[in-house]
Amino acid sequence: MTHPLRIAVLSAWHVHAEEYGRAALDHPDTELVAVWDDDAERGAALAETLGVPFEADLDALLAREDLDGVTNTTATTDHDEILGKVIASGKHVFTEKLLSPTVEGCDALTSAASAAGVQITVSLPRLSHGYTVALREVLEAGTLGRISYSRVRLAHNGSTGDWLPARFYDPAEAIGGAFSDLAAHPVYLTQLILGAEASSVRAAYTDMTGRGVEDNAVVSITTPDGAIGVIETGFVTPFSPFTIEVQGTEGTLLYGFDEGRMQLGTAEGWKDLEVPADIDAPFAQWVTAIRTGTPTTENLERARALTQLVVAANAAA
User: Fold this and answer.
1) What is the pLDDT of residues 179-189, one digit of tens each?
2) How many CA atoms, within 13 angstroms, populate the side-chain half-sphere of residue 15?
C-alpha cells in the first residue's frame, strides 16, 4: 500500500468528529475522502465543513475499494454494530472511546479485527501527552515507593455552559453522562498509575442540570495492594484545572496545580520536573499500525480496561 491511506468519517454524532476528520486531512500519510452519517443533515454539514463528499449509504461506502479506514464518532451504543460492519469490510478503525459499551463487545471487536487483519486504535490521547510521559518515568523508576493514593480530575462546563449537544444526555445513545464520556481520560490515567485491577468501585453521581444523566461525578476505587484511586469529572465546572496527584510511601507527584507544573516531593525536598514533548498521538499510532501491520496492543488493552471500569462505575451508581 504505497498511496496515502484513504479515510472516511463515520458520523458527526460526537463532538470530536471534525477533529478526527481534520487529523486525516493534516496527516501526511492520509487523505479524507468522505463523511457518512445516519442523520443526513448533520453528516452533510460536517462533509461541507471538511470539504469532502457526503455518503448517505454506509454499505456502499464500506464497499469502496478506494477506502482504507474510518474514524468512528458514532453514538457509543452504535459502536458494536457499526464497527462490526467496518471490520467485516476489511477497513481499519480509529474510534472514539468507548470502544464498546461492554467488555464482551470490546473482546468481540478486537478478535474480529485480528482475524481480519484490521488495525483498531482507540482515541486515548492523554496517554501521549508529555506529562504522562514524565509520569511513566517516575512510576517506572519507583521514586514514589509503594503507591497508596491517586487522584485525577478533569471537568468542564458543557452542561452549565450549554454547549454540549442534547444527544450527549441520551442514555440510549451515550450509555450515561459525564462519567461515560469525559471521565474516560482520568480513568485510563488512574489505571496507568494503579493498574487495571480494582477490588472495589464506588460511585457518586448527581444530575445538577436535570437532563437525566450524571453531570457531576466522583468514582473511587481500591486496588488489591490497598491503594485508593479517586476519579473526578463533570460538566458543571467552568474553571476546574486538569490535575493529577499521586502519593506513595516515598514521595508525592503533582501536576496541574500550579500553572501546569509537574512537581516531585521526596525526603530531599520539592523540585520541578521537566515535562517533555508529546509523543505520537493515537491517530498517528494508528497510521503506523496500518503501515507496519503491528497492532497498538497497549492501547487496546487500556481501552478494554477503561470500558470495564466505566461499566462497573455505572453499575455502582
Assistant:
1) 999 999 999 99
2) 11
